[in-house]
Amino acid sequence: MDYRNPQIAELYDLANPPAQDTDFYLALVGPHARSVLDLGCGTGTLCCALAERGHRVTGVDPAAAMLAVGRNKPRAELVEWVESAAQSYNSDKRFDLIVMTGHAFQTLLTDSDTLAVLQIMRGHLRERGMVAFETRNPHLDWAGQWAARPPRTLPGQILETLKITCIDGEFVSFQTSYRSPHTTLTTNSTLRFPSQEHVEALIGRSGLEVREVFGNWNRAPFDAARSREMIFVAGIAERSRS
Q1: C-alpha distances in angstroms, 82 versus 9, 66, 119, 182, 186?
Q2: What is the pLDDT of residues 162-185, one digit of tens each?
Q3: CATH code at 102?
Q4: Cβ atoms < 10 Å from Cβ of 83
Q5: Residue 99 main-chain phi, psi, to 5 deg
């Protein structure tokens, strides 16, 4: 999806209000002030919610248009905003919690990009810190569910429709259209649906180790047959501690 387009960035924000995932990550960081890095922060909904609760937050995203939306939100002045791809982010800071939310992990389409991001997480994590991100359960028929989903109406009389354009192994491509009374915007996206085993292998190669895998935002254990999410919580592997 072309998040560099300011109109698309605004529509993304309308289409993705705070939900159960926001509550999950807010609870994960806990009540005491912590340093948090949000890689692929998008329009900064979680960043601003964390900052409002007293946490020290850095939000990183490659799209300036998405960051521009975030900078206009309440408490945005408390957040450090950085325009950068997650794969190339570099800072002297070390964080108590590093997250990648909104299924941004699924936009990493190669093992090299995925491993690069996990290594960035490992390199910027404090010794007792946590990493957390989610990816959809690949055992479910997401393409079928999305193809059957009726259009939905967003604020401002905007009609959002989704059309599957290609299914190729673990990759699903789709076209999203936003029709308003005055114009129609169309974007194209591809997401990867890696297996639990593959993600865990890449986590291990990065110097991290899996601590927990949840299947939903209520922290139920992951069930390959039924869970919609694979929510990974990881920390620095004992063998790689310096």
Answers
A1: 16, 11, 18, 33, 27
A2: 999 999 999 999 999 999 988 999
A3: 3.40.50.150
A4: 13
A5: -125, 155
